């Protein structure tokens, strides 16, 4: 019988690649996203189950846990992203507060609420993987600070779930193409600069991250927990 896997933010980019990797292995995969109009077509295309859930909203996360019902083998916290832009004319301090609250909500609260809600469902031998960022250690502003908080929380989570034989790790991703992360903010110059920062001289792909997640959920990774795994082509070492 295949494993049961939950991937938040599984409709596109890294989350979608992770869902596809586990589905290809025969897992019973559930993906989430904030909007039904993105969740439903993605789930159909991947051949997985899809549930609309805003992982930053406690009542929706509680409902998600109820929908899952049975044992859960793998949880991948892939929901996240850059902060929402404050409306034009917002006073500077109010805009700053909105930015930071948005970053923490999208990148920390989503993982904390989801993991807490499904904690009792996690089976012995289970795995929790949260998608972090190189920005946590390289001056990423409010987004980077939120990803640093994610890693700090993961250390506490690993200590709490370790006695139940559940591993908990963070993947520190770098520049990954094929996602909606940058929106319209990516230029050719910026692309070249980010690629040049890597030791491998190529950007990452969602598949690179998905394969690492898959490994962390494999029998060969059962003694890896409480860690931040850098998957960024060596960019972390160049600055």
Automatic annotation (TrEMBL):
Mention any Pfam family matching this sequence: adh_short_C2
- Where does the Ketoreductase domain lie? 3-179
InterPro entries, from UniProt?
KR_dom, NAD(P)-bd_dom_sf, Sc_DH/Rdtase_CS, SDR_fam
| Taxonomy, superkingdom | Bacteria
SUPFAM superfamilies given in the database record = NAD(P)-binding Rossmann-fold domains
Q: Name its GO BP terms in alphabetical order.
A: fatty acid elongation
Which N-terminal residues, if any, form the signal peptide? none
Spell out the family assignment given in the record's similarity comment.
Belongs to the short-chain dehydrogenases/reductases (SDR) family.
Q: What is the protein name given in its UniProt record?
A: SDR family oxidoreductase
